[in-house]
Amino acid sequence: MKAPVTPPRLTPMFTLTDIELDALTELVNIGVSRAANALRELVGEQVGEQVLLSVPSLRIMSRALAASFIEASAGAHLVAVQQVFEGTFSGRALLIFPETNSLELVRAVTGGGLPLEDIIGLEPEALAETGNVILNGCLAVIANMLRQTLQISLPEVLHGSSGDIFEIDGSTSDESGVLFLYINFVVEHRDIRGYIAMLMDMPSLFTLKTLLGELIARAEGYHDDHAGG
Known about the structure:
Number of strands: 9
Strand content: 15-25%
Radius of gyration: 18 Å
CATH topology: Chemotaxis protein chec
Number of domains: 1
Structural class: alpha+beta
Number of helices: 6
């Protein structure tokens, strides 16, 4: 298993203030906790599997740099579950694994008692269900806390390189700013490590910044009301 790699930084065309970054990180942290509980149910507490999730980190970078980070962390051959979300802000949420981990994840989700040929047959469905539960857990919390409604597509399983998954081609500019919101999660006792990434274009990022400002203002107003009362 490869050690986690610190993602590269990019001088951004878009920035979040420290308080905005803290607020977004907290939203993601809540969403990831929900996702961890959902994944724990999927892998089955009866077999003693622990689901460990790192503290989320956020970076603003190009798709090209995000792809480079994932390749350095997880290798050249990847499998991902993708869900498109649309609303006041829109984007793509991705649950990404090294391809070599995908069958082990399916084995964990299905309880580990099936023969290899059955596990291979169940791989697309099991991966899609895993991604659906985890990504929806994160997106639902973020949308709810920002008082928004998101329409989320059905999960789609993707195979390919990091460039394929992040839709990198020769015409993609390195200045194409995205929010790369990633988190390690590990299924204990199994060689499984994955990443969650949420990619948004610049208009959606600026909308998100506005919504975070409104969330912060509500929180400050709440504290002021209680401090005065």
